[in-house]
Amino acid sequence: MAGIPVFASPVLPEWIDYNGHLRDAYYGLIFSQSTDALMDRIGLDAAYRARTGCTLYTLEMHLHYLREVKVGDTTEVLLRILGLDAKRIHVALELMCEGKPGVAASAEVMLLHVRQHEGGVSTAPLPAEIAAELAQLRAESSTLAADAAGSRRMEMRAAAPPS
User: Fold this and answer.
1) Fold of 4-141
2) What is the pLDDT of residue 145?
3) What pTM does this model have?
């Protein structure tokens, strides 16, 4: 197994594009809902957010579309915690389709713990109990090898000038 199961969802007909497969935006939706499931799992749930005004913001997400996902597929997202510090969580997610081999898509996400308050948002350290939950998930997932390549720098290199 390439990660810890965190979220599952059927692929709905309205998520399918004109090519007959999952529209690219819905991969992002599934990965975003997986982040929400992670938040609930570690204690950053709705009650925590209401009580503290704190939440996670997504700073960066890199998506890799590896194979088609079709209507009727049931997706499962597996996670690995790649790194964490006092305020940030670096997460790798892999989307699998039930009954089909291989990873259909992967995402690498950088999350930031923030406090929302009147007049703005500021970064905030993760509470000790949440940091401990994340450290445990990191330890559990540290020995699990990825089934898909991680993110890389995206760029278009200029073509060599004609000689």
Assistant:
1) Thiol Ester Dehydrase; Chain A (3.10.129)
2) 76
3) 0.89
